[in-house]
Write a structure and sequence with these properties.
Chain lengths: ~675, ~250, ~240
Amino acid sequence: MLDSKIPGGPLKDKWTKHKNEINVVNPANKRFIDVIVVGSGLAGGAAAASLAELGYNVKCFCFQDSPRRAHSIAAQGGINAAKNYQNDGDSTYRLFYDTVKGGDYRAREANVYRLAEVSANIIDQCVAQGVPFAREYGGLLDNRSFGGVLVSRTFYAKGQTGQQLLLGAYSAMSRQIGKGKIKMYNRHEMLELVIVDGKARGIIARNLITGEIERHSAHAVVLGSGGYGNVFFLSTNAMGSNVSAAWRAHKKGAFFANPCYTQIHPTCIPRSGDYQSKLTLMSESLRNDGRIWVPKDMKDVEAIRAGKKKPTDLKEEERDYYLERRYPAFGNLVPRDVASRAAKERCDAGYGVNETGEAVYLDFSSAIMRYGREKATVDGIKNPSDQKVRELGEKIVEAKYGNLFQMYEKITDDNPYKTPMMIYPAVHYTMGGLWVDYNLMTTIPGCFAAGEANFSDHGANRLGASALMQGLADGYFVLPYTIGDYLANDIRTGEIPTDSKEFDEAEKDVKQRIERLINNKGTKSVDHFHKRLGKVMWDKVGMSRNAQGLQEAMAEIKQIREEFHNDVFVPGTANEFNPELEKATRVADFLELGELFAKDALERNESCGGHFREESVELDGEQKGEAKRDDVNFTYVAAWEWNGDPAASVVHKEQLEFKNIELKQRSYK
Amino acid sequence: MAANTGMNLTLKIWRQKDAKSSGKMETYQVRDISDHMSFLEMMDVLNEQLIGEGKEPVAFDHDCREGICGMCSMYINGEAHGPDRGVTTCQLHMRKFKDGDTIYIEPWRATAFPVVKDLVVDRSSFDRVMNAGGFVSVNTSGNAQDANAIPIPKEDADKAFDAATCIGCGACVATCKNASAMLFVSAKVSQLSLLPQGQVEAKDRVQKMVDQMDKEGFGNCTNTGACEVECPKGISLDNIARMNSEYLKASTK
Amino acid sequence: MSNSALSKSSVGRKVLMALSGFFLLVFLLQHCTINLLSIISKDLFNEISHFMGTNPVVQIFLQPVLIFGFIFHLGMGIYLEINNKKARNVKYAMNKSAVNSTWMSRNMVITGIMIFLFLGLHFYDFWIPEITTKLVQQDWSGLDASGEFRYWAEVNHKFHDPVRVGIYCLAFVFLALHLLHGFQSAFQSVGFRHRRYTPLIKKLGNIYAILIPALFVVIALAHHFCCCSAASCAP
C-alpha cells in the first residue's frame, strides 16, 4: 500500500533522473493553478516563494502576525551543506553518510542523498538573497564543525542562523506578496483539510482576529507547519507551535510516520518552577569547552540544594564527570541523545543539583584556566597567579561564547564565568511527522508535507545544523519540482469551488468543534490539561521508555483527553480574538497525537536514535547498558493510519533498504 | 539563590475588546510572584487567575519566548519591553521588579499599529513596507552563482549582519516620540545596501520602502535616538544615517 | 524620482530640515562674530554694520534667502511636528522617555518656537527700525543726527533696558538647547555618520551650542553693564 516512489537507478543519479522524467506544468498554465501553503517557516516560506516565482497562485497561511515569526527563526547553530569550501574532504556522499548514520539508520537513503545533493544550492541561493552568513577576513564564507561530524560544513550567522535564513525566505515571499502572486493570510489557523473526490482541495481556516471560519480552495495543499514537540508542554518550541494542521490531515487519511522519534536536546536551561512556560536552548557548541558533572557524594548534592555548599567548593575528586567516565573516547561531545540520557540517569539516581532535582553542571572553569595559561604563555607572562590566569581565560571564553553566557545570566541571574551553568535536557525537535513519498506527497493525493512537518530525512535522530538544511531543501528545491508532477493533471480542472458539500461538511465540523469548546464551560483552563499531558509524556514517553510506562501513558492520556472534553473552560466567544480558544483547539489535537506517540513508542521495541527502550539495551561487553538497535525487526518506517481513535490506529510498514551504506552500531566509548 | 516567592504586584493593564471599541486601563493584583519568572510567565499567572474567576484573560502577543521571533510587544512602565536593556518582554525577568510595585502595561501605541485586542497590535504595516522592496529580486534556482563567487569584506558582512538581526518587533516605533519606523526600515535598507547582491536595486529599494513607510502613517525621524536605546537587538542609528544618505543619493540621481 | 520627491517624503523633508539648519548655523556664527566686534571695537562694528546694511548682495540677495531659510525651517518643523503627533493617536498612560532620549531632542519644536517668539522682539528692536530708516525714510547714510555711525549706539541703547536683556538671555538659553540637539542631528539627517568623526561632531556641536549663545549673552550683558553710551566707555 505504501509506495515511496523512489526512482530507480544508481543513488547519485536518482534525483536528476527523476527531475528529467516527471511531468511539468507549462508556464502559461501555472497561473490557472492555486496552491495553499500552510506555515511560513523555512519549508513553507521557501515553498510559497518558489511556487509563486514559478507562476502558481499561492495562498499562504500562518498563525503568527507575520510570516517572519515562524519558529524556524529560533534556530541558532547553523546549516550544513556539502560545499567542501574547507577542502577537508567533504562531499555529497559524506554528508549523506553522516546523516544516515546520525539518524541511526532509520531514514530513506534516496531522500537523504537528495538532501545532501541540493544542500550546496541552498547556500548559493541564500547568499544571492542577501543572507549575511559569517565570513572570514578574506571575504569568503566561514564554516564551523558541528555535532560530532568529521568535517567543517556548517554555515552560520553568529547564533542566529535560523533567523537569517528565515528572513531570506520571508524576503523572497515579500517580493511575491508585493507582486500579488502570494496572498498572505496572517493570523489564520488551518483547522481542517478539505478532500474532494479523494484529493486535497482546500482548507478551513479560522481568522484569529475576527473568529470567522473561512473556506479556501486550491489544487494542492502544502503543509509546512512544523513539528509537534509541544505535546510535551515544555519544550524549546515556540508557544504557538502545534500539530493541528498535520493532525487534521492525518485524520483525513494522511499516514503519520514514526511519531515517537523525538530529539531531546541536552543543553537547555533547567526548569525553575511550576509556572515555567517554555525551555530555552543553549547552543550545543558549549559542550566543546564545558565539562558536565554532578557531585559524587549524595551529601554534597544535599548540601548544594540546601544552599550550604556551592559547586565551586567541591574539589576535583569530589566531582563525577559522568560523560567522561562513561564515554572516554567522545567525553562531553557524545551525540545529543546519549548526552541527554546520561544526564537523566544521574538525576534519576538523585544527583540533580537544583531544587527540582533536574539539573547537572556544565562547568567552564577547566577551559577558562586552560585558555588562560595558553594566553599567558603567548603573552610571555612568567609564573602568572591563578587570578591572572583566570582573568585571561575568561576573556577568551567570553570571545567564544559571550552572547550565550549573557543570555544565561539574563535568565538565571547566575554568572557562568564564576559558577558552573546548570543544564538539563529538553524536547527540541520531532523527527516523526506526516509520511511522504519521494515527491513529498502524503498518502492523500494533493496534500504535501515539507520540513519538520513530514517524517523527514533524519531517521531516528537529527544531526545538528540539519533541520535548516532540510526545511530549505524541501521548500526551495524539492517541492517546487515534484508538485508539478501532480499538478500537471490539473491544468484543465479550473478553479475549485468552495460551495461544494465537502466544504460545507468540513466547515460544519470545525464550527461544531469550536462551539463544543466554547460551550463546555468546565472548571479548568486549557493549560491545566496541557501541563498534565506534558507531564505524562515527559515521565513515560520521554528520554527513556518501557512497555509498562507506555501502556500507562496511553491510558492516562486517554483519561486526560476525556476530562479535557468534559471539563475544559474556554473563556470568551468564538467570534473574536480568543487566544484561549486557539490553545484549546491545539491541545485537543495534542491529546490525540500523544496517545499515538506512546503507541508508536510501544510498538517499536528497539532503541534507536532519540527513541530509547529500556528493554533494548546491550547486556554485556564494552557497550553494556547502551542503546541496542534491532535491525532485523525494526528497519522500517512505522506509518500510522487513523482509524477513529488513536489506540485503534493501524500501522503500515515501509521497509527501509540500505544498498549504499552498511548498518553499524554507533559507538562512542 | 532561593527563589523569592513573595512578590505582590499591582498591574495596570490596557483592556480593549477589539479594534473598534475604546479601551481603558484596569487594575489587577497578582500575588506570590517568583523573581525567577519571566514577565510573560507572570502574565500567565494573571491569566490563569482571571480564568479561574471566570473572567476573560488579557490578550497579548508572544510566541518563541526566547527573544527572537519579535512577537511579544508590551510597553511596560513607560518603556518598550520594560526596564531592562537588550531584551524583549519575554526575556525580561521579574527580578527587575520588587514587592509592592505598580506596573503599567500598555500596547504599542502608533497609528500605524492599531490595537487588535488588549495588548495585541497589528503590525502588518511592517510587512507592507517589506513587500514594497525589502528583498533582492532573485528567483529560486538550482544554479545561482557559487556562494563564494563574490568575496564580501568581513567588515561589510558583519555590519550587514548586525542590521539584519532586527526582529521586527516594533519597539522602535513604540518608543519613538513620533512613532517613526526609521530604525526598522533602515535596518533592512542597510543590510541589503551593504551587500553586493543588494546593491543593484539599492536606489529603487530605498525609495519604495520609504514611500510605503510614509503611506502607513509612521511619523518622521527627529534623531532622538530613543529607538536605539530600547531596541532589544541593539540596532544602531548608523543604519538610519546610512538610509538617509542612500535616499539622498537615490533622489538626486 | 526627481528632486521634488525630496520635499514629499519623510526622509527628504528631514534632509531639507537639516540643510536649512546648516544654513542657519552658518548665519548664527556670522551674526555672533559681528556682534562680538561691538564689545571689542566700536568703529569696526560700525563699519561692518554699515557694509552689511547697505551692500546690495547682502540686502537684496542674502537677506531674503535668510528669511526664507528661517521660515522654511520653522514652518517645516511645525508641519512635521503636527504629522508626528498624528502618528500616535492614543497616548501612553505611562511613558518614561527621559530614560532613552534627551529633553532637548524631544522638544525641538518648543525651543524652536521660543526662538521664533524671541525673533519677533528682535525684529521689532532692530530690523523694523532699520527697514523704516532705509526704505520709508530713504536714509541709507547710516549716520545719526551728530553725523556719526548710528549702529553701535543703537545696539547699546537697546540693552539699557534690564527686561529686554533678561528676555534676550533667556532666548539664548533656548537657542543653546535647540542647538545641543540640532547641530549633531543635522549631520545624522543628511546621512553623515562615521565611526571616528561622529563623536567629534557631537563634541563640536556641544561646544558650538554652548559657546555661541554664551557669547550672545556676554555681549548683551556687556552692553548692559559696561558700555554706557558715553564715548569714554565705548571700546
